[in-house]
Structures are given as C-alpha cells and as structure tokens.
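Input set for joint prediction.
Command: fold jointly, output tokens.
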Amino acid sequence: MSRCTEITEESIRTLVDSFYERVRKDQELGPIFDHAIGSTDEAWEPHLQVMYGFWSSVMLSSGRYRGNPLRKHLSLPPFDTALFDRWLMLFAETARELHNPELADLYIAKSAQIAGSLRRMMEAERQTDNRLEATVQLRSFVEPRSRTPD
Ligand code: HEM
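tokens >
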C-alpha cells in the first residue's frame, strides 16, 4: 500500500476513520467510547466529523475545530488515565501504517503532546476532587453530629 506523503483534509479523514475503527474494536478503549457515543455507525458519524475538524486544526491550522476537549474528557465517567498510553499506541500504529515516516512522526509528536496535557489536567482535577472528598470525610469524623433542637 502506498503511504501518504502530504497531509490533506482527505488523508485526515482516512486516518481518523482508521484510528476509530481500531478504537471501537479495542477491548479496553472500545467500551468507554461506545458508552459515551453509542455503538452504531450513525451514532459515530458526528464524533468522526468533530475529529476530522480537530485534526485539521492541529495539523493544517485550519481553525475548523471549536471545542473544549478537556471539558469533554472530564465529563466522561472516570477512566484509568494509564489508558492514554494505549490510545497513543493505537494512534501511532495507525499513523505509521498510513504515512511516510516523517509525517507519521509529526502526528505522533502532536498526539503525545496533547495526550500529555489532557492526562496531566485530568489527574490534577482528580487530585482536587480526592482532596475535597477526604476533607469532607475528615470533617465527618471530628464534627459533632448534626444537632437536633432539644
Ligand atoms: C484514553 C484516552 C482517551 C479516551 C478514553 C477518550 C475518550 C473520548 C470520548 C468517549 C469522547 C467523546 C465524548 C462525547 O462526545 O461525549 C472523546 C472526544 C474527544 N477526544 Fe478523546 N479520549 C482519549 C484521548 C484523547 C486524546 C489523546 C485526544 C487528542 C490527541 C483526544 C481528543 C478528543 C477530541 C478533540 C474529542 C472531541 C471533543 C468535542 O466534542 O469537542 N482524546 N474522547
């Protein structure tokens, strides 16, 4: 198969389609996505459209994506952030299969940067949540039981 040597809107669609085909089949990532998006091709279409725009904005600076990935990911049911490594592995595998080594490296570098910041922000957010939860729990040990009027 000839590998793509130029990034175009069309090559981005091929990459995104191929990547999410793998994601949907993946035992660990698939269920997270299916739960949030659905399991039919129709349900997936809007997500794929968003992702074409996202990668076009990242790689071609087209400004097609206007969204807030961090907020989206934070609103998902919490998942193990170690899964970012698996996401990156599948993405790198797809990028390498479809592109020459230089382009694949560009995609892989961008994906690693973005995944790194998403992961750090999600972990920081959870630390804050954990701290709040621990504070509430600690308080329940030391504070008098809610007083009922005599
Ligand atoms: C383990 C890692 C990841 C998981 C489980 C995950 C999961 C998801 C899910 C379920 C959605 C759909 C949310 C919805 O529409 O309700 C989503 C959206 C999205 N993801 Fe991820 N994701 C991961 C990593 C990444 C990474 C590394 C990137 C970027 C390089 C990324 C970029 C996006 C973007 C741009 C959207 C669309 C947000 C929007 O609708 O504006 N994700 N992700």
